[in-house]
Design goal:
heterodimer; A: alpha+beta; globular; B: about 280 residues; Trna Endonuclease, Chain: A, domain 1; 2 domains; six-stranded mixed beta sheet; two-stranded antiparallel ribbon
Chain lengths: ~350, ~280
């Protein structure tokens, strides 16, 4: 995204400034956008970041460096080069401490790239890996939210590319009015594969006030908004929900020596799993050593390359037990579930002692 | 199995009897028993400190569980546990009780311990001498679960326990060794490795037990460095750490994994079995 170098453009120094900037984007008002040096309307994106005792200064900034704005726990980036001024393109809300919200106004490809590098290069930071239940959080009776579409992904990543039963689908529910048979296809796909994204719309009487697409890697894109506070609240709601899930899972981990259980909708090839994880390759980013085999059941011990925390995984054809040492981070559980689900295991449910968690 | 050497299987298969998955419901879990591990209790009469391996309580009653692979009778030790005062259960958020505890011994093979209930947790659950349990619900549930397959239960979040045999120590160290290759890892001291492996038990085992374990861990790591991952891991006198020979390449990782598997999966090993082994200091 090219931001015009404008010496007199308004900087974000307070939280109201930030909200004003977001509001200008929602209203797509040329004059308001110009005040903030924006020559066209960027899309607002946010990333939920799981943070293990990092301060913003420790964590550094995906682009430039952080400057605290005149509101507790909020930061903006400062990045000016000879050619461009990309300050005030990232904003960080650290008010929940364990779960940060990183807002971005950059082009999606540039933004995703910078955020990925930022997280991968900083031990202690991870994405929030939204489970199916998180992604479908607003799906309850009398909800003011409506589910408008779904993205489904299955890479069959344990097999060579030529043999993989790759499946990818992005469906807007409006299309089913034209092709009614689509409904059963989408429903079957949802039951067999992992949900990668869900599009939600919030309505007030007859008009849409907010349209968001949530992704399993903890990202949300705001496709349409009318009220900045309403948009920030919805993102904060998901961050708070995730924070509670992490706290609940932490409590289970500390109070018991038991394992988390992942149940898959797709049977996996355990030997292929062993080959992939023994090399520390693949999207799962697990480096494991096979320690025991009992028919179609294998035990592995190793490290989770996202954090280098220790991990033990016992894998059967359609399930896995995940054991995490007391000091390791429970964020590995939804991460492995999300990544393995989309890569090779399909729809995954996470349980502890028979009770669904990260729900 | 040589005397005085425990097995992580014993711990895993016993602890999982308190848990539930989609494929297995442990008998203790079925009766809502909550448990604590290696937690101090006092006896009724004279307040003597006792630290059973596991204490568990539910609405139906409570019991003390001892895990052992020692081939001598645990009868005298179990009798001491009978005097443990239940008024301290609340301190561990366990269900309050007033009666004497039931006493259960968990083993991998039957040994004559006297008049105590014994559970054998090798591959299938065997329940012996359940007539000595006072808790009728517990007695009935354990008898019902006699013969239950327990060979594919989840792992537990402890890698090392005191008195492990050499092979189990190597298995328990596998993931700790891999952590040495983390970018920026400055290495781990022997005691750090032992404490990490013990997990929640690290401040609950005696100094003597910890030192014995430390010496065994040291021997197994020396074996690893000399015979399996020579050049990849060194001990610099203070810490075990990775060398620059390691690179983040799939083949290197696979090689290290293969070597760790060879190291951990071989049978009982002592250093003397390696004639070229020079003790690593």
């Amino acid at each position: 995204m090219s931001m015009v170098k404008m010496s007199n453009m308004k900087k974000v120094v307070t939280l109201p400034d930030l909200k004003e900037k977001f509001q200008a984007i929602f209203e797509d008002n040329e004059e308001s956008l110009k005040i903030f040096g924006m020559t066209y309307t960027p899309q607002i994106k946010a990333y939920l970041i799981e943070n293990n005792n990092c301060t913003p200064d420790d964590a550094k900034c995906p682009l430039g460096f952080w400057k605290r704005i005149e509101s507790t726990d909020w930061y903006t980036n400062y990045h000016v080069t000879q050619d461009q001024n990309l300050s005030d393109t990232f904003f960080l809300d650290t008010s929940r401490q364990r779960i940060w919200i990183l807002y971005s106004l950059l082009d999606v490809n540039q933004s995703d790239f910078l955020v990925k590098n930022w997280i991968n290069n900083k031990l202690g930071l991870d994405r929030c890996w939204l489970t199916r239940n998180h992604l479908l959080h607003w799906d309850y009776p009398d909800s003011s939210w409506k589910q408008r579409g779904v993205g489904i992904k299955f890479s069959d990543g344990l097999y060579p590319e030529d043999e993989a039963a790759n499946f990818s689908l992005k469906a807007w529910y409006g299309a089913s009015r034209k092709i009614p048979q689509l409904v059963s296809v989408i429903d079957q796909a949802k039951e067999n594969f992992a949900i990668h994204s869900v599009r939600w719309q919030k309505s007030n009487e007859s008009s849409v006030t907010l349209s968001e697409e949530w992704y399993s890697q903890g990202k949300v894109t705001i496709n349409r908004g009318t009220d900045t506070d309403e948009a920030l609240l919805s993102i904060g709601e998901m961050a708070t929900l995730y924070l509670q899930s992490i706290k609940d899972a932490d409590k289970l981990k500390v109070s018991s020596l038991g394992a988390f259980e992942l149940n898959f909708s797709q049977e996996i090839d355990i030997n292929s799993f062993s080959t992939v994880v023994s090399k520390g390759i693949g999207d799962m980013r697990l480096w494991l050593v096979e320690t025991e085999t009992d028919g179609d059941f294998k035990r592995f011990k190793g490290v989770d390359l996202h954090t280098w925390d220790r991990i033990a995984i016992d894998v059967g054809p359609d399930y896995a037990y995940l054991t995490i040492p007391q000091k390791a981070c429970v964020n590995a559980v939804p991460r492995i579930a999300a990544i393995q689900g989309e890569d090779n295991a399909g729809k995954i449910s996470i349980l502890h002692d028979g009770v669904e968690v990260f729900a | 199995m040589p005397e005085n050497e425990a097995s992580i299987d014993l711990w895993r298969n016993t602890i999982q009897l308190f848990h539930k998955s989609s494929r297995f419901t442990g008998p203790f879990k079925a009766l809502n028993f909550k448990y604590v591990v290696e937690s101090p209790m006092l006896t009724r009469a004279n307040g003597v400190d006792k630290r059973p391996d596991v204490i568990a309580s539910s609405e139906s009653g409570w019991f003390v569980l001892d895990l052992t692979t020692q081939l001598n009778s645990k009868g005298p030790k179990m009798e001491e546990y009978r005097a443990v005062d239940p008024s301290y259960l609340g301190q561990y958020d366990l269900h309050a009780q007033t009666s004497e505890p039931d006493l259960i011994i968990s083993r991998l093979q039957p040994v004559n311990d006297g008049d105590y209930c014994q559970i054998i947790v090798k591959d299938t659950l065997q329940v012996l001498k359940s007539q000595f349990l006072n808790n009728i619900a517990l007695k009935s549930k354990l008898e019902e679960c006699n013969g239950l397959a327990i060979n594919k239960l989840p792992d537990i979040s402890i890698d090392l326990v005191p008195e492990l045999k050499s092979q189990d120590i190597r298995l328990g160290l596998t993931n700790i060794v891999l952590q040495l290759f983390a970018p920026g890892c400055k290495g781990k001291t022997l005691m750090e490795i032992v404490d990490e492996g013990l997990g929640v038990l690290h401040d609950k085992v005696s100094v003597l037990e910890k030192h014995r374990l430390r010496d065994k861990v040291k021997d197994q790591l020396s074996l690893l460095i000399e015979e399996y991952l020579s050049g990849y891991i060194v001990f610099d006198g203070q810490v075990y750490k990775a060398t620059e020979k390691f690179s983040d390449h799939p083949r290197i990782k696979e090689f290290i994994g293969i070597k760790l598997k060879e190291w951990s999966s071989q049978g009982q090993t002592t250093l003397s079995e390696y004639p070229h082994f020079h003790h690593h200091e």
